[in-house]
Design brief:
This protein has 842 residues and is an alpha+beta fold. It contains 15 helices and 46 strands. Strands 24-25-26-27-36-33-32-29-30 form a nine-stranded antiparallel beta sheet. β29 and β30 form a beta hairpin. α2 packs across α9 and α4 crosses α5. The protein starts with a helix and ends with a strand.
Length: 842
Amino acid sequence: MELIRTLTHKMKQSLFLLTLLLLCFQGFGQSSPQTRPQQVKVAGHAHMDPVYRWRWNEIENREVYNTFFNVLNMMDKYPDLKFTQSSLLYYSTIQQRSPEVFERIKQNIASKRWSVVGGQWVETDESMPSGESLIRQFLISKDYYSRNLGIESIPIAWSPDMFTGHTSSIPKIYAGCGIKYYVFSRAAPEGKKIFWWESNDGTRLLGYKIPDHYNPTFGKMPEYIKEWTEISGYDSPMVSVGKGDHGGGPDEGDLQALKDLYENHNMSFEFVNPYQFFDELEGAENKWPVQKEEFGIQPNGQQWLGCYTSHARIKKLNRYYENRLLTAEKFSVIGTLHKGKPFYPREDFAEAWKILLFNQFHDIMAGTYTGLGANDVYRDYERLEQITSEQLNAGLENIGARINIDMQGIPLVVYNPHSWPVTQFVDAEIKFLKRPGEFSIIDPSGSSIPYALLNQSEDGLTSHIQLDARDVPPLGYRVYEVVEGKAGEAVSDLKAAGKMIENNYYVIKWDESGLTSIYSKQLGKEILKDTGNSLQLLEDNGSSWSTKFTGKTFPFETLKSPEIISQTPLNISVKWEDRFQSTKIIRIMTLHANSDQIDFEMEVDWHTHNMLLQVVFPTSIEKGKAFYDQQYGYVERKDADLDFPTQKWIDYSDNKAGVALLNNGKYGFHMNGGRMTMSVVRGARDMDPRMDEGVHSFKYALIAHKGDWRDADIPQKAWQFNQPLLTKQENNHPGEISGWRFTDESFPLEKSFFGIDSDHVIISSVKTVQDAYNPYPLVLRIVETEGRDEDVTVRFPYKIAEVVETNHIEEEIKPRSEVKVEEDQFSFRIGHDQIRTFMVRF
């Protein structure tokens, strides 16, 4: 009767549309058992790239509305049509710009005809954003959809256009954010279409490879559906149908294409929402295979591999603001806890995270967009700089105000953003009221601390120094005093002679090309097989997405012979200057006193096209194992000549020794036979003709060590390299603040607020409960970094009232192991490679 009423109402429509209605409403026909058609489920879908060949203003101002309005009209016209849309950013956009359309969407969500999937702010890249950034995609989105869409959870991850690879950390990160199913369309593991995807800690997602692509090739559908069902062993796949990239969704043409397939290829189609499909999939008796490795990386030679380097400057800024935001958040939380009237600046941090997460969209992070789009990213980062600087400074001020500082000299506070004691050479600025003759720096015990004067203002009132800060308390601080008078003689192990420098760990030699020798005193062996920190320029005729090497390489011209540019008791620095055509490259190596870490800086003024610049360290270690840092994890990979996506470190080790390379903003690395290669910048011109022209600067470091990377605590050192110690000059003042709540609370000259008694388990994030302005309770993310189970204890500055374990989107769960609370600490057993989240009430 419903069909008859519908047809009567639409009597004026053409016979063509009548046929489409019959197909849509009756599941595209019925057949006898002998001629049973291939059943296919259909998810109506509109893939929209917020930035790609266009800028965000094109999608924001036009296509979000046009797509959603047209889809709603199609749904009104065809009652059996169902639609699926990811990216909570789009829902927020339409809510602000067209409340009427937003209300129609909510009605269809309630009736289960419109499915919200993905659970992320945007469809992010999944190989280059940090583990915490991936979690915040879900957390920011849950905050939105739980308040605005009436949805309690989104268990389906939706990554149909993610093309830079599916890293092996994804299951444990996503499962901790409430995800059960992982939908993608690019580069499935060989021989697998539906599979359990498992991380190192044993966490699983059910992976589902969409047949073909999110924009289907209708003419080839019978062929690829047949192949898909034969490989998967499941005879009723789900495809996505609808215009994409620029939006659009399913239209009359798509319905006609499905009708043609029904008539000519004996295929039956039914529109479903993905939740309905996965309910059926869970009820199937199939035993799905298990995938324990990453996949979709280096799928077709050099395809996608340019993405790890394209728009290198923006990638560097992404890393910087990921770390800057986490550091600001930690100290803002601690500072808020100790305000007289606590108030956490939630709106500022919410805005900052949304800016960061938006610019981790897969085409932005991959560098596959236009120069105009890049201009918008830089403007976004200017706002991000403003927010993070303001909030970090405010947090440090709130902490510093509580320190009881009664000294004659100038107080200099060094802050540690990590959950373990950190020893590091840290830069500081000291401002004097009158020009000092000489000055020294003493710690709270009265001991003189070595420092190096880097430079001084002409009037002598501002000095930039480098301080040897040792064992700064975990997630805490130490106050040093700057006093007039001659500094004590620093005992230094540094030596220099000709083209050679050394300390207690290394003897290093160089020539015009780079380092000719790094002899490790600790290992008793040479760690270079050939010239290290050498430059390599490859002809690359690829695109923003792909590399295409021709085999040609190009030499550099030495502009200035390498020379020692600074020498103090704390450090010695050597500088190289080279050029190729209009591109100038400056390399600086710094060896610190009594340090096993060799630091490097590079500045590249890039004006070269169709080239890839790399830095190479050919190590002498043979038959080792190559490990790469991933988001909240790590992965062992085979030797390769092409780049892999990587986070903060790589390491090549045998059973006795190894070499690690740290970085603060690069993502393309590979190792082959101990040869460590880092991609720096490239000049593809297809999307942005002047991509990456201009100045790039970044840092990296080399560490030779005994044993493997675990023995050398490489993950912790890489965290320190990316989130260094901070300094702030303070005033002399009491710790008590009259008239406020904690008037009697005063801090000593050094203090730890949070800590954890482990060398491989870290507190990666400290925050308030999402969307809370009151700092109670706190949320801590705790991560195991080396693949070892351990009983750990987390220490706090106050008595704990309650500890509740949550998932990563802050929903309470039953503890996976016993959590024991004792006064100002709690203990639990963490499993290898786990990420755990705890809510702590005081």
